[in-house]
User: Fold these one by one.
Assistant:
Number 1:
Amino acid sequence: MNHLNTAPSRRRFLAVAAGLGATAAVGTSGVAAAAPGPRRLRVATFNIHHGAGPADVLNLERVARVIQDLRVDVVGLQEVDRFWKRSGFVDQPAWLAERLGMHHAFGANLDVDPEEPGRPRRQYGTAVLSRGPIRSWTNTHLPLVPGHEQRGLLQATLEVRGSCLDFAVTHLQHDDNKERERQAARIVELLGSSPERTVLVGDLNATPETPEIGILTGALDDVWPRVGSGDGFTYDALNPHARIDFHLASRDLRPLTAQVVTADPEASDHLPVVSDLEMPVRRHRR
């Protein structure tokens, strides 16, 4: 388990602290009660193709603008680089977090030698960007067929308006359905067969009717069929023909909206998906 110290500016910290202070009150029983009513949570998934669009032109600022316009509490990213020559040796999750004023966690599924002497090791994987603090995170490698790309599950515990949420992001193997089935089964083991206050997002490289998606939806609800409109196609960005980018939520969360965002289809080779969910309020004894 990893713990982060990626606090934003003092102004943002004070604003968050003030907001949290306004959401709870302690009664005479010693129970800290959250503000009345459930909390609304806005989440997204986005495969950023290491910051390059369909024409393979690098523009991480363009990706940042897309994420900024989503106005999310948390986003899960796939195909994220750290210190690769193709992406200008930038630490992409750290750069995006700084640019957007968010906290971040990164899960390295590839970790290889640097391309130039004196450079840091190259890493590639998934990331979480969160408006609220990331209390802890862990990245677990998923089942792998020899010779294929290592995949992982990045899990983060977030603070969202005074409540905790378990948020996970993954990117499954693109060309082996049996491997994806094993990866999906391992994800259910990690998240639990009946999780609570949990959201899983990612590029699953599979369409809704496949067995691997069925394994995941045995434990989590696919948000799109419940509140999305239309086919939900996310790939490829310029000619969308498949729904392979998913939001899956535990059954105590109520989906409100879901949308494929098409405002800038040349920011990546995938389109982002954004959804609004309603979280139940918990009461915690001191």
Number 2:
Amino acid sequence: MDLSKIKLVVSDMDGTLLNSNHEVSNLFFKQFEDLKKHNIMFVAASGRPYYSIIDKLSAIKDDIIVVAENGGLVINNNEQLLSTHINRNNLYALEKIIDANSHIHPVFCTKSKGYFKSNSFGYISVLSEYYPTFKVIDSVDEIEEDIMKVALYHSEDSEKFIYPLVKSFENDFLIKISGKNWLDISDTLANKGHALKLLQDTFNITEKETMVFGDYNNDLEMLQLAEYSFAMENAHENVKQTANYSTKSNNDFGVEYIIDKLLKAKI
């Protein structure tokens, strides 16, 4: 594994760069300074909204590229490179299914905030960890901004209890199980792979020069665009089958473990 040619490092956030307490390690921030010295670009690619990613990485926010909302939004140093929102034509049918199943807690995601349904009141503390800027609504008709993504939360298992109810919408939306408790619905072009390909083309970076880390199904497309793709030890089985390599879990500094090898290869 020759890491000496790497120019771009892309990491998912939850379950990957963040530990189970939703924290970024001090070690990573130290390593980031060394990545900068070697002119290696870093991209935070997450299902989280832009403002939540920036909150977690505030110390380095001016020096990174952010791929938010599973690829629906790409921002580099305050310059918006990509924005893909949902066509509302089929959104009301989806909303009816969500409203008919009280165990599903939706977040309608716009660039500026997340919109929670009023009947999810008991889950606001959980939802706001990922969407700290939010407003409570009764209907999507109250949302005037473009909706970039609908994130659906289930307290037990999104794949088991949400996916069967929304899979019929796969012809209209991109539906991704993005975590144990989360399922994301977005425009068919709003995925992390589409965003990564844009960045590779923009900065003239090849797959051989790209390193990617991921743990769940919303990472699959971007893992396929890097020769040095890594599945976390805690990753979904689909991710382990897709990635070319593996690393330690997010709680065992799996990303930092490989970045250390990358930095040593640059010496």
Number 3:
Amino acid sequence: MQVSVIIINYNTFQLTSEAVESIIKHTRGVSYEIIVVDNASTECDPGLFKQRFPSIKLVRNPNNSGFAKGNNLGIEYASGETVLLFNSDAACLNDALTLTYQALQWETTLGLVTARLEYPDGRVQHSCGRFPSISLQLVELLRLQKFMSDEQRGRILQGAFFSYDKPLYPDWVWGTYYHLKREVIEKMPGGHLADDFFMYAEDLQWSYMVRKLGYTVKYIPEARVMHHFSQSTKKEKRLNQGNMILQNEDTFLQREYGWTTTKAYYLAKMANFLLMRGNSEHRQHMLQQYGKLLLGKPL
């Protein structure tokens, strides 16, 4: 088995079914298995997945233990030489599994590869990023990116500055489509993915560990995946999600960077938001949140 695909389902039966269907429809060049981990859904009987897709492995998690722990549970049942974490709200647009698997085989130092993520209307999602850095915050603070070429901006700053039309070796990538060599997972502490976060920022943490182990991370535009990435989420829920991300990132930064560097990073972030034009609600909110993190207050 070349690829074990793990999909976490939590009350998203239709979306998860579409994800499975897209993999079956487009995958031609590799052997694969699909493992659906149901995180104690109440929407319907998870057994419906087996009725609809008899060839999949269905793992019933008695508790909703979150994204990271759900994936680790799925990995326990995986037999592939590589492991692909695939979001339930994603769908292959081409034979992405083969393209990312081949990339992992061709480069011995490559530990993690991801695909081009697109909104349903075809717009690209900014799924590649740099690790939090004071120096990069200073680049933006001093507006040094204005003196760079488009290619330099994209390569150095990544995120929304990158065009996503060519390969890139980013620091970290979203967990939406996260294709790992099994050997990388086995070398991580405990032989599994870090799962101390219930949800959000675990992809940043995992990518950091991949790089720390001496492997590279790669984005390839040839592999294409549609990602719904709901933009219609209610404002209150978006704010709660944002707070969880920031809180988890704070835990990650203090553990890996130390207290002093983390606080200096927050000062640089606040300076950037202070110099932003306009007086948007988002700007004010982020200033407030980073101020709380700087002072060690809960969000």
Number 4:
Amino acid sequence: MKAYVFPGQGAQFSGMGKELYENEQAKTLFEKANEIIGFRISDIMFSGSDEELKETKVTQPAIFLHSVILAKTLGEGFKPDMVAGHSLGEFSALVAASALSFEDGLKLVIARANAMQKACELQPSTMAAILGLADEVVENICNDIDEVVVAANYNCPGQIVISGSIEGVDIACQKLTEAGAKRALKLNVGGAFHSPLMEPARIELKEAIENVTILPPVCPIYQNVDPTPNTDPQKIKSNLITQLTGAVKWTQTIERMIADGATEFVEVGPGNVLQGLVKKVNRAMPTSSATTI
């Protein structure tokens, strides 16, 4: 069984999607996206600087567009048995699996990026990668801190990202290092994604998600907050709303997809970060990057 996975924020690079533009279908979709967004995001993707690509209003739609347009150009070769996306990638996965239209998916991603940016500006906050500790140790230490700090991304065994207030993350990094973490590395991000500090963004995005049409996907989707096979549109919506403040359970997602019969993983979008994470869960699992016909 073939599992397709879609990357999230951080996978962007200058030149992303440029080769896709030569495909007529892809060109049409890029131009449609430029129209919806109101500026030529394709130009920034193909030749913009790293700084331009880091802007929130650019990063999330750019990664979404690269992933979704690549999936659309795979033609008959794209027959997913299951899909999943890391954080933002969940929206790409839903469009690729025909649960969400291209236009609605893009509009939701833009709304999500704007809502997250606003939430980041309300309170200074950050994230940090913790390497070499068991999940429970990280969770217990975060729970004992009298500040907002939570386990936000379960990326692979031995790698968790924590998220919260600057003070909370600083205290947690110190305590986790004392508990034996190999590294506690603060990340260069704009805010505390997938933590309670994203509650204003969750409220703002909730209405947009509730009003959008989501159809049953062509195959099960394994979502970040509930990594079990799902094809129910209402449950998909509920999980999407929870995602902004809930943890990305990526380790559990990959483990469950393998348990459910996945025999290979194909990453659709910029970079190969997710392939590396799959290998950390199961070294023997074949992985590859999707390429246009």
